[in-house]
Specification:
Organism: Brevibacillus parabrevis
Protein name: Diaminopimelate decarboxylase
Largest sheet: 9 strands, mixed
Cofactor: pyridoxal 5'-phosphate
InterPro entries: Ala_racemase/Decarboxylase_C (IPR009006), De-COase2_N (IPR022644), Orn/DAP/Arg_de-COase (IPR000183), PLP-binding_barrel (IPR029066)
Oligomer: single chain
Pfam families: Orn_Arg_deC_N (PF02784)
CATH superfamily of the largest domain: Alanine racemase
Length: about 425
Amino acid sequence: MYTYEQLAEWRKLCQSSFFLLDTARLRDNYRRFYEAFASRYEQVSVAYSYKTNYVPYVCQSLHQLGAQAEVVSRLEYDLARKLGVEPAAIVFNGPLKTAEDIQLALELGSLVNLDSFSEIAPVLTYARQHPEQTVRVGLRVNFDLTRGGVSPLQNGYEVSRFGFCVENGSFAQALALLSAVPNVRVTGLHGHFSTNRSVGVYRQIARELCRLGKAHLGERLEFIDIGGGFYGELPVTFGMVGVPSFDDYAAAITSVLKDELAEAARLPQLILEPGISLVADAVEFVCQVVDVKVNRGDRFVLVDGSVHNIKPTMHAHRLPVTVVTQSSEAREGTYHVVGYTCMEKDYLLQGFRGKVPEPGDFLVFGHTGAYTLVFNPPFIRERPPVLAIAGGDVVVARRKETLAEFFPESLYEFPAGQAGKTGGYAQ
């Protein structure tokens, strides 16, 4: 753990609360994930899920290790290209791609997984305009995962909103529309579902993708895209036991592919799109105590951070936290940690028992690398900067925003001639 002096020095550099990226942990997560699959299956591609954390320093660190890019918007697609990712190493997913997005990705040679019928027309138009080119695309498929009347989808949903439904014929219809143009080839299937992340569900998804591939694509099947959502290392504060390891996932998925496709002339490429499992535990959030007060018997610790910084999705799990104090004689007690916003519900911790911090002390929240930096709104205060520990150095991976960056004049209209007027209205 970090010393008080280290945190104080880094905060002085940032002039605010900040995120801290451990690049060694990030790289170790990637290597362990890749090796779990590559040691069991020959054709493996790992495409990092940009939406989980698209801070350029994070993405580039993973690309340097060989990770491809999985993107779900033109914004992310352009970022990947800006970072030097070859278009052929970009997997373009997501439920909303414009005709321009699709045609650009096809022109540059990226893999596009179609999600709905609205995305088929741009593919057909592009293919007709380029008859000399074989246009290869994938289809995201939707099928029933319910077993014994229980759905494994997150939040209790029974039906996923993504992809082409197998049961009602939408999948077959999409294949027919695409095959109507001679130079279009559906070469793979994408099967990402947001589920309970169990090994059994991934085994089920892999098996169904293989069977659909055999039945509908045959020898044209070039890839099986399992998607992401894998568990990584979880803190004990989550209270979860029996969490699958990377090896557990890899053994289940690769054995299904080898079994189901044993008679194929060649095994397809296995595409994986991890996000949370790579970055969640590689980032911490460091905030400083501003004040401690007692209201009607409850102790409140005010920090220069917010629940939006550490849990923007408002999940129910308690994040691991370390209190770093200036004094070695900090007393034990129960308190709430609250943030800088004006929202009553801005609690980083509720009913926490541990060292009672004083103003100037630090709280370090772990497991804050997934979705926080991208889903964290710039609400009331600017987004916190990001520091990266790279070897023995500390690098500013994202600076603290200024007013000009928060409200750029290239985006906002600032009416002229009204500055300084108070206490009335313009005549």
